[in-house]
Structure formats: structure tokens, C-alpha cells
Amino acid sequence: MGMFQRDQQIFADAAPLDDSYEPEDIRERDDELEKYQRALQPVIDNRPTSNIFLYGKTGTGKTVATKFMLSHLEADAATYDDVDLSTVWVSCENLSSSYQVAVALVNEIRESQNKEKISTTGYSQQRVFDILYDELDALGGTVILVLDEIDNIGHSDDILYGLPRARSNGYVDEVRPVIIGISNDFKFRENLSPKVKDTLAEKEILFPPYDANQLRSILKPRAEKSFHDGVLADEVVPLCSAFAAQDTGSARQAIRLLREAGELAQANDCESVSEDEVRDAQEELEKNQLYEGMQELTTQGHAVLCALAYHQSLEEVPIRSSDLYERYTKICERLDADSVSERRVRDHLSDMNMLGLISVYEHNEGLSAGRYHEYELDVPLTAVLDVLLSTNRFKDLADIIESTADDNNLLQSDLSDY
């Protein structure tokens, strides 16, 4: 008998537990889908359509809802002879400027038409914008530009100013560009430049975290499709839902927890999945979640984390936000990236604290020094370096931090905790 054998007793079809799975219907988002439908209705009516921005933490249904709505919109638009609709989808996960987003949009359009892509360097920003306008005008009609994880562009928001004004400025004649921005950062709009805020004229749709009952409703049909009959104990789906609701309210987390529990049962040659597998899976995923939480930080979040890691490597922690901010601005200068205010850096630190990545200590020294906070990593420095080293933009800085930590013998002791 071979080392690997096909599972016959746990999983019937694991596809519904995959991150890429697109369900036939969207559960527990009726209000959000109704707002989404109203915002997209002008496309079918062949009239100007507002830009749409979706806000919510990871796993709250923004992307899957967008795919669901656009799928129906495209199908319905095809039944009208006078509606010309195209959609272009770009993930901004590794894009940190309007220039890079514009290049990505141009190349996404050209790839769909089997045309030669443009280089990612060597053009002025205005030249790339002009190429983008030409490509959009050639498409004509309404073109919906989906910018997933748009918060990664930070303060480089020129594209959010240029696209909405392209028609009124005479850059395009035959097309109506519509932006759908998807952001994990509820405060993203607050940090846009005033001219962008005035120009966007967007509809906002908020996707709050799911509660346990909503997660159970989402999980149940996936569980029924994914596992053989009678395999799941009655408490498995409710427990997966409860764990995810207590933590992040993320459907993605609940689904991954269910899948991990099934894989543990399979690995242990169990005939069923019980509460024990769910609890073991939760413990395993908590470790992985910290790593994913660091990976999913924005460029600004990574810069703040990098600054804290640097002070950690020098054993200069806990550190006050004012001192940390000084290091953060130097990191941004080295990366040729815009820096944000010290208040915004504290917001990023607060987010990282909620993710369990850092510890925050509050001090109150009365009238002499007042109240202030100090920060240090709450995860191994090696884990932070793994994330920074895997991000091209931060690799050189991570190498410096790693070397500094190694000189101080920090990594050897750190490894014992990782």
C-alpha cells in the first residue's frame, strides 16, 4: 500500500471549503446586497453610475459579494442591446502607488485582448494614465474597474482623482469608468487627499463582522456538501462558528477551521469529526493566523511593524510611539514611500494590538509626564522577519534587522519560542 491513499470516509467534496469557492447564493448579507444592487442599477439603465467603495475586515464577504453581483450584472446587461459593459479586476495587494495600479489595469485589459503588455517601469505617471485612458476608450460603454485591497496605495491616490474626472476633462469620449474599491481599512477614506474626496462621489457599503448565528448559516450548506453523511458531530459547525465569531467575525476563518478539523480527523484515521478536532484545529490556526495577520497588513502597516522590529532587534523595547515614529519615517524615506501622521501610526499599532501581534503598555506619570503608551512585539521576531523577507519591498530592511538581532543573540533565544 502506498504512502498516500485517497480519503474515503471524511471528505465527500472539499471544494466548498476552499478560499476560491464561489457559492451559488450569498447568505447573511441581504442588506448589503440590496444597497449594492441599487448602486449598480444605473448601469442597466444606461446612465452615469457612482463609484462604489466596500469597507470591512477580511472574511466579511466583500470580495465574494462583488463577484456575485458582477456576475449577475454582466448576465443581465447582455440581454440589453444598448448596454455595453466590461469589467476589469485588479488586486492591489502588492501595489503601493497609483502608477503601479494604472500599469496593472492597462496590462489586465491588454491581456484579455491578447495584446502586448507594457513595462512596469520606464514611463512617466501621466504617460501611463494616457495609455490607460486610450485602452478604456477603446472598450467603450461602461467599464467597471474593481480595485481589491485599494488601501495598499496609501497616499498615492492620484488614480482615484484622475479616473472619475477622465470624461469631464476630455481624456475619454466613449467610456464611463466606474470604480469599485474594496478595502479592509475602515479609515481609508479619511486619509485620501481632499481633492480625491471631492471627486470620488462614491456610494459606501459597510460589511460588519459576522456573528455566530450568521456564521453557522454560512457554514452549514458548505459542510453538507463537503463531508460524507454522518461524519460531522452535531457540535462541530456551531463550535467552528462560535470560535470565529469570538475572534474576528470572519467567515473565512470559520471555513478554514472546519476544513482543518476535517484534515486532522483524516490524518488521525478517525471515522468522524468531533469537538476535539475542532479545538485542536483552533490551536493550530491561531499560530497560522498571526502570520497571516502580518502578511495582510498594508504597506504602511508593514513599515510600522518594521520599525518596531528594528527596535526589538536593538533590545530597545518597550518603546514610546514618538520614538517609534522617528524610525518609521526614516524607513518610509528609504522605501521612497509617503509617511503618515503619528496619530495614524498609532491607529496601525492599535490594529496590530487587536490582531495579537504587539503588546501595549499604558503609563500614567501624573502632571510631570502625563499619560503615554509603549509598544513591543508579542510574536517572535523570527516570525516578523519571515513576513518582511517575503515582501520584496522590505527585504533589504529585514536583512539589516536580522543581522542586528543576530549580533545581539536575539534570534537564538527567539527560535525557542517559535
CATH architectural arrangement of the largest domain: 3-Layer(aba) Sandwich
- Radius of gyration, rounded? 24 Å
> How many extended strands?
8
- Rough outline: globular
Helicity range: 40-55%
Q: Report the span from N to C terminus.
A: 36 Å
Number of helices: 17
Number of domains: 3
The main pleated sheet reads as: 5 strands, parallel
Task: Describe the 3D structure.
By secondary structure, this protein is an alpha/beta fold. The protein is 52% helix and 12% strand. It is built from 17 helices and eight strands. A five-stranded parallel sheet has the order 2-3-4-1-5, sandwiched between helices. Strands 6-8-7 form a three-stranded antiparallel sheet. Helix 5 (158-165) links the parallel strand 3 (141-148) and strand 4 (175-183).
